[in-house]
Amino acid sequence: MAVTSKPETSVENRVAGWLTPEEFSILETVCDTFFPSLEPPDGSSEELAAYYRRSARILNVAHLIAETLAFENEDEQKKFHKLLSLLDSLLGGLMLIGSPRKFKSLSQEKREKYLTVMANSPMGQLRQGYQAIKRLAGFIYFSAPNAQGVNPNWNVLDYTAPSPLPADVPQPIKPLTISEDTILEADAVRKAAIITKLILPYKKLRQCQNSI
Q1: What are phi and psi of 19, to 5 degrees?
Q2: What's the pTM value of the predicted model, to 2 decimals?
Q3: Which of 54, 55, 60, 77 has the CB geometry, 3.0–4.6 Å to 37, for a possible disulfide?
């Protein structure tokens, strides 16, 4: 009897260049578990009702996470592949909720229990994986702007984004132009490193948003 192997997903078919469609589907389910579509309370305003019904999938949260993590190194991506593989295994369900079922096949209530066990697991990698997805999903869900530059959740949360400074207002920080070999003092280098650490994740997210 001939045995045929399942062809590997090509790079062109991978989401954000590194997740298989099945892995991405699992990530979408995790994000929708954190931010599901819910029925609003009776008497809710139209805006509040839309907020309750707005799932992570509607805001493309999983896709933005995939795009953001595409900037990570190969080792970090391998860890994420392993985490998604666990979520897609019968062993993962048996180990975390006592039932040999894959994460996607579970009800919303069982998926929440699954993630809660992950969050409190004695295994550091499971806790870290949970925190990575939860924090990224939460940040993107409440901050990623739409085509008009506004996150649809802001109004119901009574949040107004700060207006950008007018172009003619003097900037508080003037960039240093270096045109020749220059020795920078330690404080300047340290401050530059801190600023770079703060700005790079934001730049990565903006690049992801612009690519969708």
Answers
A1: -105, 135
A2: 0.74
A3: 55
